[in-house]
Design goal:
Layout lengths: L3 H17 L1 E3 L12 H9 L4 H11 L3 E3 L4 E3 L3 H12 L4 H18 L3 H15 L8 H11 L11 E6 L2 E7 L11 E8 L3 H10 L13 E9 L4 E8 L4
Parallel strand pairs: 6-7
Antiparallel strand pairs: 1-3, 2-3, 4-5, 5-6, 7-8
Helix pairs in contact: 1-3, 1-4, 5-6, 6-7
């Protein structure tokens, strides 16, 4: 049986992988070879470090390991749902609060509430990013993806840098049900030291949405900008309309 601290450590590391979609890490080969139940139980009782946590999670089936790309990832939607449910039913208040904010952010997008989206992205940028990487462009992509992690029960896994139209969309969320009139496809474009309208203009000019019309014409365009000087985030949301 895991102690409370070990339980938190396992769930916290699992949630990091959920947020990032995958986690780049090199594990010792002995960690990814088959083990019997007795060995696994003994290891769980003696977890000492992060790698031990991942070892246990791999063999319990909650996390998969891609040897070729040396990354950990959540293997499927069902396991993702189990992890989220476990977090929601636990006393892991910090992680539960993060999930609650994610649900609020997704609802804000669907309600075209630009200020609320910007507010939550800004909070997550402060909470999830270290001082050393705060101003890196990749950190903004990670933060925005993390902000919408609650999309897992309505959308397929977010597509990053998806080739569409005349370029690559930063993030695309496709509903699981094709031509879903209730749940729009979401196309997110990120900008740095510009403005959120410029992001929306790029989605239009590069014709990203045209590449989605076989899937749906119910599309929301979301532009998010981060101002490095003021540390402020702004958001603009528009419904895509066929010309």
């Amino acid at each position: 049986m895991l102690t409370a601290n070990r339980d938190y450590f396992c769930m916290h590391n699992c949630y990091i992988i959920v947020l990032q979609q995958s986690c780049q890490i090199i594990l010792p080969r002995t960690y990814i070879t088959a083990v019997n139940d007795g060995v696994l139980r003994a290891l769980i009782d003696k977890i000492k470090c992060r790698d031990d946590v991942f070892y246990a999670l791999i063999h319990l089936g909650y996390v998969a390991y891609d040897i070729q790309h040396v990354r950990l990832y959540i293997p499927n939607k069902e396991v993702m749902g189990q992890i989220i449910a476990a977090i929601e039913g636990s006393n892991l208040d910090t992680i539960k609060e993060s999930l609650k904010l994610s649900e609020q952010a997704l609802d804000a997008v669907l309600n075209l509430d630009e200020e609320k989206v910007a507010e939550i992205v800004e909070k997550n940028h402060q909470d999830l990013t270290s001082a050393f990487s705060y101003d890196y462009e990749k950190s903004l992509s990670y933060v925005v993806h993390s902000t919408f992690v609650a999309s897992y029960d309505r959308y397929f896994k977010a597509k990053r840098e998806l080739p569409m139209g005349k370029g690559f969309a930063d993030l695309v969320y496709l509903p699981e049900i094709k031509n879903n009139k209730e749940t729009p496809t979401i196309v997110v474009e990120l900008k740095w030291d510009q403005d959120a309208k410029t992001a929306i203009d790029q989605i239009k000019e590069k014709r990203y949405c045209e590449g989605l019309l076989d899937h749906t014409d119910n599309i929301l365009m979301v532009g998010i900008n981060y101002d490095k000087k003021t540390k402020k985030h702004t958001c603009k949301i528009e419904q895509y309309r066929l010309n």
